[in-house]
Hints:
By secondary structure, the chain is of the alpha+beta class. The protein has one domain. Helices cover 15% and strands 47% of the residues. It is built from 1 helix and 6 strands, in the order E-E-E-H-E-E-E. Strands 1, 2, 3, 4, 5 and 6 form a 6-stranded antiparallel beta sheet that branches. The longest helix is centred in the middle third of the chain and has 11 residues. The chain is globular.
Amino acid sequence: xxxxxxxxxxxxxxxxxxxxxxxxxxxxxxxxxxxxxxxxxxxxxxxxxxxxxxxxxxxxxxxxxxxxxxxxx
Length: 73
């Protein structure tokens, strides 16, 4: 059985300084969705991904100062 893990990192822009939160390891998209709700409460979000890449970026449609990076490992 193959276990898929995701390394999740939050990037935020505050006063023109980029803050990078420590990465965490999550084990399902349900856990990622819970993290999205914590970072972007009551906001619409979308995911961008280049074909063939293990990296995805999750962004809010209203808060341009935060990005959640998800890398499948």
